[in-house]
Design brief:
Layout (H helix, E strand, L loop, with lengths): L1 E7 L7 H13 L8 E7 L4 E7 L13 E2 L5 E9 L2 H10 L11 H12 L1 H7 L2 E9 L4 E6 L8 E5 L2 E5 L2 H5 L10 H10 L12 E3 L4 E6 L14 E2 L3 H10 L6 H19 L6 E4 L4 H13 L5 E7 L7 H11 L2 E7 L1 H6 L4 H4 L9 H12 L4 E3 L4 H5 L3 H13 L4 H12 L3 H15 L8 H12 L4 H8 L12 H4 L15 H27 L4 E3 L5 H7 L15 H7 L5 H4 L10 H6 L3 H7 L2 H7 L4 H13 L5 H17 L2
Parallel strand pairs: 13-14, 13-16, 14-15, 16-17
Antiparallel strand pairs: 1-3, 1-9, 2-3, 4-5, 5-6, 6-7, 7-11, 8-9, 8-10, 11-12
Length: 657
């Protein structure tokens, strides 16, 4: 795992020394991603510079240094990630007589030789891995920026006064002397709606993200793109095609054969991802996904696998004891560390530097804590991310369809009329009406905030489909909250053309999460939390062969008896007794709402400064402060919406004081 940076001055460098100095500043801003080595390469005449920070994992010798040139001298690469099947690629190159004289044994060297032999696109299609890299073709004078299929590794690119920049993280772009980031209100609206900023947007107008499964071709010379324009991404792996093709060509074997095939695929993925020249382990929460990955790791390992769990003192959703029981059954070398609320809160001031783009999934805190624990013992850690998106594990899928079954049968015109009637009165009046009726109907029982529930029901009645309902359920701030200008809030929207018309709404929700929530929330969270402590993370369930197989499975092999991940559970039960892992999904949360009312109250009030918010003109303070008052009074729990604002405000204070 590494950090990559670079830039292009289309007219060449006026001063090679100055270019080297700027490149050095950019590279050193990512030292946490690569503490072991630093490399700089530039061509002053062509005006291109590539930089690299190395976390040595495979081939620890100087032969693995980057940027790396191909044996024929045509290509230069700055690579972040791993090619898990590099040994098979090397064997294929050797069989075809296309292998160079190997200088070392790194996966980057093999992958570079594959590009030189077969071309970029074919090498990508043959590869199994996670990566983001910059590749310069000296012969064609083209820079390629490439990202892995599922988006495990990050890659930003953008413009700064005619200079084209790219890097693993925004802090490296900010290190370039020309960079001047203007906040994009559309990206801010997406952050407040989703708690993350989906690709291709970034928080800055002049910066974007390379989409997963894609590459950009940036020509130098006469075909140089006009500054401010965006090279169109080209897909080499398309999840839309994978989902549609998988449904058209379903798996036709028995349930046992499906479990056998999944086990075979996962063993192959795990074996590839356990290749390492440095100590390796795994996160273990005790849930279905991480337990399955660890079980297979232990099955293919000759010695006990290192596993890591963070427990949280006095938290209702602590799962450490479940993880310990799974670890004991599998016979792993288990490390369990308990952390109190004070230690968890100490991470919060670090978050704007760790996530140098605004990001407000509060599980970023425990994720960083477990990464820090693991890094004391290993350099690489496998995790179980991806199981929910691929095998239907999120409770919100079931919630959406349950609600829709209750209201979807009503004619749309009737639902709309009912919604209009319910909205005709304010929440306060509905509260009064309910207060009068409560003693007559329910006796002493009361339902707090009845008016809010009535207005929420009105919103639900207005939805045209279960899909619209799902989009609302996973939203945080909405236009009706008035936190942004009405023309701004919905100006940015995710491209509807990439959502397949899958016949089952359950599959459509899963696809949405696979191409948005997974790469732009889950994988961002894990990458930044782990790389902040120089820990490489790998995710076997996101092997593209497993992803493709999951889309061939009928829904009945994913969802059964009101629970998701049926096939994954059946596989896990081959290794672990059902009673150790079969329990409700808990997630990886923290009591943010409680902390905001208590120990974080002063910090929160300092960030929710009305004068400062008004002067910046990005967020309207009135609805934010109204929700803050409702939250601290106990009237409502607005922890997630407030955390969105707080993480943005903290980010502003850190990077744009």
């Amino acid at each position: 795992m590494c950090g990559i940076v670079g830039f292009i001055e289309p007219k060449g460098f006026l001063s090679g020394e100055q270019a080297q100095k700027i490149l050095g500043l950019m590279v050193r801003s990512l030292s946490h991603r690569g503490p072991d080595d630093e490399g700089l390469w530039f061509d002053a005449q062509s005006g291109i510079a590539l930089g690299h920070r190395r976390l040595a994992v495979i081939d620890l010798s100087p032969q693995g240094r980057q940027p790396m040139e191909s044996a024929d001298g045509r290509y230069v690469i700055s690579f972040n990630g791993e090619i898990y099947n590099f040994r098979l690629l090397a064997q294929e190159l050797e069989r075809e007589g296309l292998a160079p004289a190997w200088r070392g044994h790194s996966d980057t060297e093999v992958f570079l030789a594959a590009i030189a032999a077969w071309g970029l696109k074919e090498a990508l299609c043959k590869s199994v891995g996670m990566f983001a890299f910059a590749l310069y073709d000296k012969a064609e004078r083209i820079l390629y920026l490439v990202r892995d299929r599922m988006g495990e590794k990050p890659l930003y690119y953008g413009w700064a006064s005619g200079t084209f920049l790219f890097a693993s993280e925004l802090k490296a772009l900010r290190a370039h002397r020309k960079f001047s980031g203007e906040i994009d209100p559309e990206a801010l609206s997406l952050l407040l709606r989703h708690n993350y900023i989906p690709s291709p947007w970034s928080i800055y107008r002049n910066v974007r993200k390379v989409p997963p499964g894609s590459f950009l071709a940036v020509p130098l010379g006469s075909n140089w793109p006009p500054p401010g324009t965006w090279p169109p991404p080209q897909k080499y792996w398309d999840p839309l095609h994978v989902a549609i093709n998988g449904q058209k060509n379903p798996f036709e074997g028995s349930e046992k054969e499906a479990a056998d095939h999944l086990e075979e695929l996962l063993k192959r993925a795990v074996e590839g991802q356990m290749i390492s020249d440095v100590p390796l382990g795994a996160f273990l929460s005790g849930g279905i996904d991480s337990s399955t990955v660890v079980a297979v790791m232990q099955a293919v390992s000759a010695r006990p696998v290192r596993t890591f769990t963070v427990g949280f003192e006095k938290w209702d959703y602590n799962e450490a004891h479940h993880a310990k029981r799974v670890a004991q059954h599998l016979g792993t070398d288990h490390t369990e560390v308990y952390i109190d609320a004070q230690r968890a809160m100490e991470v919060i001031p670090e978050l704007p530097a760790i996530y140098d783009e605004p990001f407000s999934d509060s599980s970023q805190i425990p994720t960083h804590l477990i990464a820090a624990v693991a890094r004391k013992h290993v350099t690489v850690s496998l995790s179980g991310d991806g199981g929910d998106e691929l095998f239907g594990g999120y409770p919100r899928y079931f919630q959406t369809l349950r609600i829709w079954r209750q209201i979807g049968w009503l004619p749309p015109s009737l639902r709309s009329s009912m919604a209009t009637i319910l909205r005709s009165q304010p929440a306060s009046l509905w509260d009064k009406l309910f207060g009068w009726a409560t003693p007559l109907v329910w006796g002493k029982r009361r339902s707090p905030r009845f008016g809010d529930k009535i207005l929420k029901l009105a919103d639900i009645l207005d939805f045209a489909s279960s899909w619209d309902l799902y989009r609302d359920l996973i939203s945080h701030w909405r236009p009706s909250h008035g936190v942004l200008g009405e023309d701004t809030f919905w100006a940015a929207h995710l491209d509807g053309e990439r959502w397949p018309e899958l016949p089952d709404p359950f599959h459509r929700m899963m696809f949405w999460d696979m191409v948005t929530y997974l790469p732009d929330d889950i994988l961002v969270k894990v990458d930044r939390a782990a790389m902040a402590v120089s820990l490489e993370t790998r995710m076997p369930l996101l092997d593209h062969r497993i992803v493709e197989f999951s889309w061939r499975l009928p829904l009945s092999m994913k969802v059964r008896n009101g629970k998701g991940k049926w096939l994954l559970r059946e596989l896990l039960y081959r290794y672990v007794p059902k009673e150790l892992v079969d329990r409700p999904k808990m997630g990886f949360g923290i009591p943010i709402g409680e902390w905001l009312r208590g120990p974080l109250r002063a910090w929160t009030q300092g960030l929710l400064n009305e004068k400062e918010m008004r002067e910046r003109g990005l967020i309207k303070p009135e609805p934010v402060l109204r929700k803050w008052q409702e939250h601290i009074s106990g009237k409502r729990n607005w922890q997630y919406l407030l955390w969105d604002i707080l993480m943005f405000q903290a980010w502003l204070k850190r990077w744009h004081p």
